[in-house]
Amino acid sequence: MPIGTIQWLPRRASKISRKFTLTAGRLRLIILISAMFLTGIAALFFHIGRINERTQFNGGRHSELFLFRGELFQLSERVNSLRAQLEEISTREKQVLVAGAGLNLDFSELIPQSAPMSEPPGDNMFRYIDDLEMQIILMEKLAYAELIAYDSLASYLMEKDTELARIPSIWPVDGIFVSDFGPRIDPFTGAVRIHKGIDLACLSGTPIYAPADGVIVFAGWTGGWGLNIVLRHSDIISTRYAHCSAACTVVGQEVNRGDLIARVGSTGRSIAPHLHYEVLINGVQVDPEDYILREGSDSAIF
Description:
- There is one protein chain.
- The protein has helices at 24-100, 125-159, 161-164; strands at residues 2-8, 18-23, 176-179, 182-185, 192-195, 198-201, 207-209, 214-222, 226-232, 237-247, 254-255, 260-264, 274-281, 284-286.
- By secondary structure, the protein is α+β, with helices and mostly antiparallel strands.
- Strands 3, 6, 7, 8, 9, 10, 11, 12, 13 and 14 form a ten-stranded antiparallel sheet that branches.
- Strand 8 (214-222) and strand 9 form a beta hairpin.
- The longest helix has 77 residues, at 24-100.
- The N and C termini lie far apart (122 Å).
């Protein structure tokens, strides 16, 4: 059943006019098509909005990841710097120990112990990084405090350098350790006797160096020691070098650590070229190894 008529009238007379009869069915069809068109337009705009939202979200995530990389890179640089500081501490520790010449210093409590690793980060990456950064700040402060402590200790030791330079802390000769301090079987009699020094075997003529600063107080022949040198380092510390083949110093001569004072031989009560080395405290022989600083088991720090 028609419910209206639409007539199209052309501007030109040559054109034919047209009529469109609007029925209820056609009206419903037009409404349906219009609704579908509008729905499609709305769906299109919604889809475009979702795409834009995802683009913004991905851009935000990319920015966050970029920020995380930057944070982790900075932390890595600070960890490397901290490691360098701790290595510097280790180097200074060794230098101070060598300078200490047998002071038996112990710095183990100053070295930070390795902290257990934290659990892997969860969703809150920023909180994890903040906690890690706080731990690094504390380690940096500890390392800085240790450096100050080592510098103070080194300054103190440098003030004592005159005293330290007179402690016999290096090997007097480059030789093979063959006999230590204490009871041993006498190579001539086979009886047990107290050996009051250490023996270092080496070729005849091998240089003997002063293990510390001092003054030559004796250079001559004495019974079983043969040609021997006595070097006084302080009012209480002296060292003796026996069985020498030649003396390179004279009585009253001042020497410094590392100076040539004599040469190895086999004079006196000796069966082969070697150096018999003694350390005397107030005239009493003590074990020289208590004063010798080492690198490794038997090598000298000279």
